[in-house]
TrEMBL record:
The keyword Repressor does not apply. Residues 9-394 form the RsdA/BaiN/AoA(So)-like Rossmann fold-like domain. Its cofactor is FAD. Keywords: FAD, Flavoprotein. The keyword Flavoprotein applies. It comes from the Bacteria. This is Membrane protein.
């Protein structure tokens, strides 16, 4: 496209959570800001998140809620832009919200209100947002960066890469940010799907497939991490909050265990049930602590299918051990198609934790999911987007 280049102080590539936060923050400092995105509208992942209600932060956010090759990297940005800071903006825009559980805050009405708020803040700060604007090439010169797009050329002093990861390609996710990182000499750590349903195969898949839709509280354990919440059985495997959480710590071959009675000591409870209701079948008693179909399936394949009084102490102990430490062999994940986040990404070793700026290329910043920082389920990844976007926006 011919014509003079569009000149700006800051060009943000990606109009998602991190990119919009960076743009409005930089704009409020008086910087001339342009935001470009190849998608047809901004904030697509915001819009779909939380079932359309957007789990926009978590009041309990700490650095311990994030995975990264450098667990210290996220500390600075998170400390300087807290959940309360974002909540202040939400309240200023009179967006009604509620806490669902475990510090998770959701919009009462719609995630559209969060996108509208961010766009209104960008507009008030003079930051211009362009959609349907794909990047065709990036060069660095003595006076900054030259970016070719389908809507013309941009010249900027600071370039911010806020392009997200590989999760949910149907939303337009791509590895573009990783390509930019490599172009400018940055390492990209191996990526994989995170916060993603797990698939089962063989015996476990055959025995559980027809229980699709059954949900029960569990404590899921893997590699020293323990998450207590609901598990949902699916046609292909397992999902639900407990499984999505533990999936970020699981890789093929890793040991995955479930406590199927997380609210009780299985041994004590079974002995009490034997004393008080010895004539009852084990499956009948179990059905009072978990969905009936799950209780039946366990007794068909793994547990003694007979009255409690017929079980001796060793059998009770074995049953309790299985219920409290059920070994589930997952074969894989559902992949980026359904993953909420991407694990891995741009190596933080060459990025400033205070400014998100490249240590190799002055003026180049990486924020949000494109970096090797991944939060737990429950609003943590949005808080990282706000915090990292704010950190870059204060200096870009």
């Amino acid at each position: 496209m011919a014509g003079d280049p569009i000149r700006c102080d800051v060009l943000v590539i990606g109009a998602g959570a991190a990119g919009l936060m960076c743009a409005l923050t930089a704009g409020q400092r008086g910087r001339i800001v342009q935001v470009i995105d190849h998608a047809n509208k901004p904030g697509k992942k915001i819009l779909m998140s939380g079932g359309g209600r957007c789990n926009f932060t978590n009041t309990g956010t700490t650095p311990a809620n994030f995975l990264s090759a450098n667990p210290h990297f996220c500390k600075s940005a998170l400390a300087r832009y807290a959940p309360s800071d974002f909540i202040d903006m939400v309240e200023r825009h009179r967006i009604a919200y509620h806490e669902k559980e475990l510090g998770q805050l959701f919009c009462d009405v719609s995630s559209k209100l969060i996108v509208r708020m961010l766009l209104d803040e960008c507009a008030a700060a003079g930051a211009q947002v362009r959609t349907d604007c794909a990047v065709e090439g990036i060069e660095r010169g003595a006076d900054g960066f030259r970016v070719r797009t389908g809507q013309g050329r941009f010249h900027c002093a600071s370039l911010v890469v806020a392009t997200g990861g590989l999760s949910i390609p149907s939303m337009g996710a791509s590895g573009f940010g990783y390509e930019v990182a490599r172009q400018f000499g940055h390492e990209v750590l191996p990526t994989r799907a995170g916060l993603v349903p797990l698939t089962l195969s063989g015996k476990h898949q055959q025995r559980f497939a027809d229980l699709s839709g059954v949900a029960l509280p569990v404590a899921a354990r893997c590699n020293g991490q323990d998450f207590r919440n609901f598990m949902l059985l699916t046609h292909r495997g397992i999902s639900g909050p407990a499984i999505l959480q533990v999936s970020s710590y699981w890789q093929p071959g890793d040991d995955l265990r479930l406590d199927l009675l997380p609210d009780r000591d299985a041994g004590d409870w079974l002995r009490t049930m034997k004393r008080e209701r010895g004539a009852s079948e084990l499956r009948t008693v179990l059905a009072e602590a978990m969905p009936k179909r799950m209780a039946q399936r366990l007794c068909e394949h793994w547990l003694p299918d007979r009255p409690l009084r017929q079980l001796d102490e060793r059998q009770l102990r074995d049953a309790a051990a299985l219920l409290g430490d059920f070994p589930l062999v997952a074969s894989g994940t559902e992949g980026y198609r359904t993953a909420e986040v991407t694990l891995g990404g741009v190596d933080t070793a060459a990025i400033s934790s205070a400014t998100m700026e490249s240590r190799r290329v002055p003026g180049l910043h990486f924020i949000g999911e494109v970096l090797d920082v991944t939060g737990w389920l429950g609003g943590y990844n949005f808080q990282w987007a706000w915090a990292s976007g704010h950190a870059a926006g204060q200096v870009a």
